[in-house]
Specification:
The chain has helices at 5-15, 70-83, 108-122, 136-148, 184-192, 207-218; strands spanning 2-3, 22-26, 32-40, 45-53, 59-66, 85-91, 129-133, 152-156, 172-176, 196-198. It is an alpha/beta fold. It has a 6-stranded parallel beta sheet with strand order 7-6-5-9-8-10, sandwiched between helices. It has a 4-stranded antiparallel beta sheet with strand order 1-4-3-2. It contains 6 helices and 10 strands. It folds into 2 domains: 2-53, Beta Barrel (Ribosomal Protein L25, Chain P); 61-218, SPOUT methyltransferase, trefoil knot domain (Alpha/beta knot), CATH 3.40.1280.10. The structure holds S-adenosylmethionine (SAM). Residues 156-158, 176-177, 179-182, 199-201, 203-207, 210 line the site of S-adenosylmethionine. Residues 156-158, 176-177, 179-182, 199-201, 203-207, 210 line the site of S-adenosylmethionine (SAM).
Length: 219
């Protein structure tokens, strides 16, 4: 294996690796293993690698996330990937600004890179599925029932009377709202699709914190 660019810089500056050191490696979509550094300079790192371990299992969790602002999107995608979320749907909502959908961060290359960063962080190799849905109502009415089938469907909503359950056994579909929250009509549609609104307590959390707290509590 030969590393250049960002990954070479990371190994040099963060791991401060030297020739002979062993590093954890993984092949995107494949196995994990280790590598022994055989050559290292400012241009390239070479390793002899062995790939012999399976990546960790995904959480049985589908995340339906109202598209956050572009900067936040990067962080949420990487952290949801690190947490092991199996499937992510980025959806529109009333309080999602239309310009977010046109951001360069919505390009396939960035959406892939953020998930890869999440995989690298967590020593995983399998990308979570990622789907973009720009129309809320048809998504909720036509597609969501198939997605939630056989799972516990929950929507994070501050102030909901039901506390978010802990350590749920079995698959979960979790909806997390936009910065301004879900509007009543959206909550009604989600309820119609079988979602129960759940609360995490009196503190209103930023999207990225809410995703981590909800997933941590549920799984
Ligand atoms: N002002 C918005 C509201 O009251 O709904 C805050 C939205 S918050 C920044 C973004 C999303 O994170 C919310 O729509 C919800 O899905 C989730 N969230 C944040 N804090 C939460 C809490 N305490 N309980 C449940 N969900 C929460």
């Amino acid at each position: 294996m030969r590393l250049t660019g960002r990954r070479l810089a990371h190994v040099r500056e963060v791991h401060r690796a030297a020739v002979g050191d062993r590093l954890s490696v993984g092949l995107l979509g494949g196995l994990l293993g280790s590598g022994r550094v055989t050559q290292l300079d400012s241009e390239c790192l070479a390793m002899d690698i062995t790939l012999d371990q399976s990546p960790p299992s995904k959480l049985p969790l589908t995340l339906m996330l109202a598209l956050p602002r572009p900067k936040v999107l990067n962080r949420v995608l990487a952290s949801a990937t690190s947490l092991g979320v199996a499937r992510i749907y980025l959806v529109n909502a009333w309080k999602v600004e239309k310009s977010y959908w046109k951001s360069p961060r919505m390009e396939g290359s960035n959406l892939l890179e953020q998930r890869i960063l999440g995989l690298e962080q967590a020593k995983d190799t399998v990308l979570p599925e990622l789907h973009l849905r720009r129309l809320f109502r048809p998504f909720v009415e036509e597609e969501l029932p198939g997605i939630t089938e056989g799972s516990l469907a929950l929507v994070g909503h501050p102030g909901a009377p039901m506390p978010c359950p802990r350590a749920v056994q079995g698959p979960v579909t979790l909806a997390v709202g936009p910065e301004g929250g879900w509007i009543d009509a959206e909550l009604l549609s989600l309820r119609g699709a079988g979602f129960q609104a759940v609360d995490l307590g009196p503190r209103i959390l930023r999207t990225e914190t809410a995703v981590a707290a909800l997933v941590g509590r549920l799984c």
